[in-house]
Fold Iron ABC transporter permease.
Amino acid sequence: MRRALALAALAAVPLAVLGVFFVLPVLGMVSEGFWTDGRFDPAAVLEVLGRPRVHRVVWFTVWSASAGTALSLLLGVPAAHLLHRRRFPGRRVLRAVLLVPFVLPTVVVGVAFRELIGEAGPLGFLGLDGSAAAIVAGLVFFNVAVVIRAVGAAWESLDPRPAEAAAALGASPAHVFRTVTLPMLRPAIMSAASVVFLFCATAFGVVLTLGGLRYSSVETEIYLLTTNLLDLQAAAALSIVQLVAITSLLVVTSRLRAVPDPTLARSTARPPRVSRADWPGLLATGLVVVLVGLPVAALVAGSLQVGDGYGLANYRALDTVGSRSALLVPVTDALVTSLRTAVDATWMSLSLGLLVAVVVTRRSRSRTERRARGLLDGLFMLPLGVSAVTLGFGFLITLDRPPVDFRDSLLLVPIAQALVALPLVVRTLAPVLGGVDDRQRQAAASLGAGPLRAFLTVDLPAMWKPLLAAAGFAFAVSLGEFGATSFLAREDHPTLPIVIYHLIGHPGAMNYGMALAASVVLAGTTALVMLLVERLRVPSVGSF
């Protein structure tokens, strides 16, 4: 009974937050889709799903996510081999740099690609501006890091003896990879592919900025139906379809991640140097560097361009509201708002994530307790199954009346961002806490230490680096979050991604130059945070 009460006490606050700020908005969204004028009307949802435009939107979402996943695997798997199984100067720096795109703000990446492939850009002659190819390239830009980290971590841990035995028996390197290495890597590759498909299918800022009027995904269609057409029922219907599809994909992903692989055994041998036989990895890594470097270089160069020359005028203009009063507040004020919001979202997600990680990783002494902890673990992963756009839409239609009237609260945006970051925080902390030997806690308790003292002396020393890393992830995710914030941010307190999107939508060279400069500032801040996290050397996106 004491353990049950302790479990309930630890889970009470996270469950209350999840109930008010996740379950209630999702139920409100479902209600908006199925109830018309106070009566149950599923035909309204079927009518929305029968629209030809909805068919095109769903098809493009599936197609672009599939193409982005395939290309991410094609580049990421050989790059993972080079970066995790071969030794060369600058390997750690290159691995850290290639992690940064995953957490860059989506609107910044969209602006960077537009600057690269637009009519006046270095690659404008290719005619890719506003094309599906540009959107897929943006998706690969983000998600190839997921494949490199997830597959690379598994590859780094493979027992080398089966491959060495096959090679000793005369098998060629290609035959060894196909018959020995690939089967051992298959669970990691399938898990990475599922996660990448999830991220591609829920991409928002990239499709919104690169798709123009021609291409729209389910995410951007929900946004347009809500903000431009005011068709809340159609937006709710699409949100329901997306919720079911993504949750199903998450179930598949969790099962793939849970597949035991007895062939994994951490290798302590020093990796060999790069050789000519590693040309697939060299080629793939080179293409990834080009894919990441060209848009970033074009963005930085564009931010410095002033008329026919170069200078810092676009950066100096960040303390203004742009030409023709494009903004209500200066860009610098929006940056301060973003930083404050990110700080609030970080401490919220860390507080909740730490409690959840403690609850789900403690040893269970009965089947009922084990099932309860497993259920709680699944519940707190649910925010990963709802896109940020859908979550923001749910906030918009449910948290605007007593007793949960938060429409005018400045905490609404950081709460939404904290929920977006919560699964990442839990997946960073839970493996570390789960790896702590429970006998150490028992020894501390036998010496008279209470639960809090045992946590401080046993668990905290093992998890302080992952805790800092989780804070960095949460801060970076919050800083660039655009989906939920686009629904919830107040006009007089916009975040920096919102301001960037407004600036690129207003005509004028000054506004566009300010958008580029603001994008560089936001990208630089996010990259700095992630490079600091990488120095902590803890698992990141691959843990999903």
Remarks:
- Residues 326 and 506 are 7 Å apart (CA to CA).
